[in-house]
């Protein structure tokens, strides 16, 4: 219990990295003879090696040093309790934020969407000598323990538990938050092969009929494109006739290219950020506006050649058509666009000049031009109606009115007819629709004999029997100055022989009418 006989090792404290101190002892007052000691005279937790790492160690005199002290102080018999140990404490060194050697840095990682998740690691500063085993579970991603799978850049940091493990494994330093540096985990977009249908966003073909409402345009997503967006017709563009793209939906008949607008494509890209979607991943389609069907029985859908009547010798008229109200696009037509057919069904070369009744129709090429100018309607040849071109004789003698069946026609009289009424034989002819003019000369009247039987017959919608009779009322207004003129030429008759020729010609014409009637029956 006598403190004056004690030899006590003095405590020592340093900070990690400081110079090793010189260890000493304190002698009790009765231990008057001191000995020289060095650090080799001490043990540290029983070891002769002086510690360098942070910790608290028991420091004691070794046996050799104790014997030296006992030998120098023979007046006392010392016991083990007279030699009291001390402590050697090494405190951790606080790290310097500027010292890269005390940093633990998470390594950056980058993959392409769809690749396997990488193994996350760290890089230790040189002073952080004790490393620990790590797994992906030791990291956080934007603060979450869940490893991201979608495209993006995420902050990767060590979680609190693993930081504690690293600090424990490296006790020589007092670490701060700044010693643990986060990394980045980047998942880049996967470029999609446009030749694979699963990687496409395809606009669907659509169609409507002119005059109907536009359809709702849609797209088909490939299986890879999992995030769909709501689209409406304003998200589509249409290529006009000039090749330009517009968001105005076409209304005229035709076939148009249709595609997603750039803004709509961007919406889909944003909804599917895991993939690189290029313009070629967005496929266009076809939008068809079909022509509206027409009803040839409706005048609104037809193109009708206008009827024309002239007198022989008049100037050739300009032939025209009347368009139905639906056909708003008209084309320029000339007489060359029309074809003329006579009573016998023969096509006349050019515009007829001989008296008669002709069917006038538009040539196929003219019809085609009108069809092309009005593509919104499905015009057929049935929509093009023919007209009638009538050329009458010059009326120098009088007018005979013929009533035949349902058709009333004006029959130019023989210019050489005399005054008075004539009774003659009745002739009947069956004609078809579109038959032309039949001119007969029933005979020449020199003033009071048989009247002229020159008949104009126009065919009705079906076969029509037109009766040409000498019972026609001949309102002859000619004068005797015409008595000596030929019925064929209206030229002056120079001999009575020509009168006989005229009568013969008339009889032959009448015979021809009867023969035709017989053949038709």
UniProtKB/TrEMBL annotation:
<keyword id="KW-0572">Peptidoglycan-anchor</keyword>
<dbReference type="InterPro" id="IPR041277">
    <property type="entry name" value="MBG_Lactobacillales"/>
</dbReference>
<dbReference type="InterPro" id="IPR019931">
    <property type="entry name" value="LPXTG_anchor"/>
</dbReference>
<dbReference type="Pfam" id="PF00746">
    <property type="entry name" value="Gram_pos_anchor"/>
</dbReference>
<feature type="compositionally biased region" description="Gly residues">
    <location>
        <begin position="437"/>
        <end position="453"/>
    </location>
</feature>
<keyword id="KW-0964">Secreted</keyword>
<keyword id="KW-0732">Signal</keyword>
<feature type="region of interest" description="Disordered">
    <location>
        <begin position="436"/>
        <end position="456"/>
    </location>
</feature>
<protein>
    <submittedName>
        <fullName>LPXTG cell wall anchor domain-containing protein</fullName>
    </submittedName>
</protein>
<dbReference type="Pfam" id="PF17883">
    <property type="entry name" value="MBG"/>
</dbReference>
<keyword id="KW-0134">Cell wall</keyword>
<feature type="domain" description="Gram-positive cocci surface proteins LPxTG">
    <location>
        <begin position="486"/>
        <end position="521"/>
    </location>
</feature>
